[in-house]
Amino acid sequence: MKYKEYKGINYADIAREVLQRWQDGKVFERSVEGREGAPSFTFYEGPPSANGTPGIHHVMARAVKDIFCRYKTLKGYQVKRKGGWDTHGLPVELQVEKELGITKEDIGKKISVEEYNKRCKEAVMKYKDQWDDLTEKMGYWVDLQNPYITFDRNYMETLWWLLKQLYDKGLLYEGFTIQPYSPKAGTGLSSHELNQPGAYREVKDTTVVAQFKLADKDDEFFLAWTTTPWTLAANTALAVNPAIDYIKVATYNPYTYQPVKVIFAKDRLNYLLNTKAEGIPLSDYKPGDKLIPYEILEEYKGKELVGIRYEQLLPYVPPTGDAFRVIEGDFVTTDEGTGIVHIAPTFGADDFRAAKKAGIGAILVKDEEGKDSPIVDKQGRYVKEMGEFAGMYVKNEYYPAGEAPEKSLDVLLAIKLKEANRAFKVEKYEHSYPHCWRTDKPVLYYPLDSWFIKTTAFKDR
Predict the structure, then answer these.
(1) How many CB atoms lie within 10 A of CB 263?
(2) Residue 194: which of 438, 406, 461 has the closest Cα?
(3) For the domain 200-434, what is the CATH code?
(4) Domain chopping of the chain, boundaries
(5) For 423-440, what is each residue's pLDDT tens digit?
(6) Over the range 20-54, which residues count as b (16 or more CB within 10 Å of their CB) and which as e?
(7) What's the rounded Cα separation, in Å, for the pair 387 and 390?
(8) Residues 257-287: pLDDT tens digits?
(9) What is the Cα 206 distance to its own chain's centre?
(10) Side-chain half-sphere exposure of 414, counting CA atoms within 13 A
């Protein structure tokens, strides 16, 4: 076989020449048909969505896919490659809703379901020609003449049939978990989605070291730090590490100037108090002094604090079960905060697990259907039971453009706690926080009902 010699190489011309030869000779088709009866290696492409234009990352991913298929062909397999189009899901819906200036709540009101579906089907294949052109030019071999399309009825009915088989085998079940949730997109997010580049961003949030008053003690408090003050109304427990050293300190609240005794991890003394005030008599303190004196009264191991009860911090909604006591948490550290972690079972995976293990209830209300729901609705707003804060979004980013209040919910809650002698320290804190890749808005950790396939039943296979 002779190979053409190229002089003064023009790679674009060479590419066009090779592609033309492949097309004229139906090389891809013959590589499949010519191995009829050979062992099969079947490839279904993880389908792209044609409502967005292809990028260089698609070229890179497809080059890797193509290598495996060509390798298997060279090893003698019949390699059928089936292309596909992902035509379902939120990216398409969000694009159409943005174009029409509507939200999910408007479907069936401002626009019929039929018209909405029609617009989605039109939008989802918007850039198909560009995808086909890229596929051909990069030499990616895949059957685009007979693709699987996820809005096709045959495809959908096949999936329903498969789900029915799993259900009949007892492998389909409904579960309740705390998941990353995007209020603006109206959907939960997978760990894969949160691990995408750019999902975690540096943000500055209002943080609060809250004072949780011990039951039957007038001036004694546990100190717990949070970067999400809006979750404090859902608090039902405080977690300590049994092995950590804790101290009780007599001092003064820096906002109300009232005398207090506060309990926190010994290693966090430098964060919570100014050590330059060490040795100043408590009696010398005058309201407004920059140096606030303190005196260490007692020292404990965390295990000695377990079981102590305290009062509800923000008593808008009563708990569903046992609540407001100190529990064990091996995840508690002294790297940040106070060494005591505030537990809101409805808004954190660790919180949910720790509370469940300790038999701690949650703060729940009834929704319109009479189901138990958290104090934040799926749009990211406090529910009506939350008094003067009802209807406020827990993140200012959730408000429509130009409608966010000057003082966020976190700031207003911090002010309320300061005035009530329930905040020991309030400050801005820069940290990394996950955002939804579809909407660029912060996510919440939220309780969601979800359906799961019991893959663990076959883990040994």
Answers:
(1) 25
(2) 438
(3) 3.90.740.10
(4) 11-87+125-151, 200-434
(5) 999 999 999 999 998 889
(6) eebeeeeebeebeeebeeeeebebebebbbbbbeb
(7) 5
(8) 999 999 999 999 999 999 999 999 999 999 9
(9) 20
(10) 21
